[in-house]
């Protein structure tokens, strides 16, 4: 009787452990997902970038980059222009980097806070 009871307890504990570990690994994956923003200004351009990182499957994410910018020519600010680009990237957790292989884009993550794309730092909104 005790043996059957012990087997049932072990099965329940194994199931609970599996559920808890699955929930933890999912939260690590979702930790980098979100919206990140950066603004910039130089003598030629004023602009802002939004990077939206969306989980796709396992450690694969879709990155949507939306850019709005105004060119400055002869001291005059021209009308705002917009651009949107999408790509797919793989998250390498031990390096904390999202890597896109076709063009070599890399986003260096600071999970929950910000990311670096080239020399630009993007702050996380949500």
TrEMBL record:
Domain of life: Bacteria
Name the record gives this protein: Lipoprotein
């Amino acid at each position: 009787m005790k043996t059957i009871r012990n087997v049932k307890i072990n099965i329940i504990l194994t199931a609970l452990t599996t559920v808890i570990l699955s929930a933890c690994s999912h939260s690590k994956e979702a930790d980098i997902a979100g919206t990140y923003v950066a603004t910039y200004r130089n003598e030629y351009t004023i602009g802002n970038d939004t990077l939206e990182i969306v989980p796709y499957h396992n450690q694969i994410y879709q990155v949507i980059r939306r850019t709005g910018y105004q060119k400055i020519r002869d001291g005059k600010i021209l009308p705002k222009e917009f651009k949107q680009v999408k790509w797919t990237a793989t998250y390498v957790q031990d390096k904390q980097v999202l890597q896109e292989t076709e063009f070599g884009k890399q986003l260096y993550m600071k999970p929950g806070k910000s990311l670096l794309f080239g020399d630009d730092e993007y702050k996380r909104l949500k």
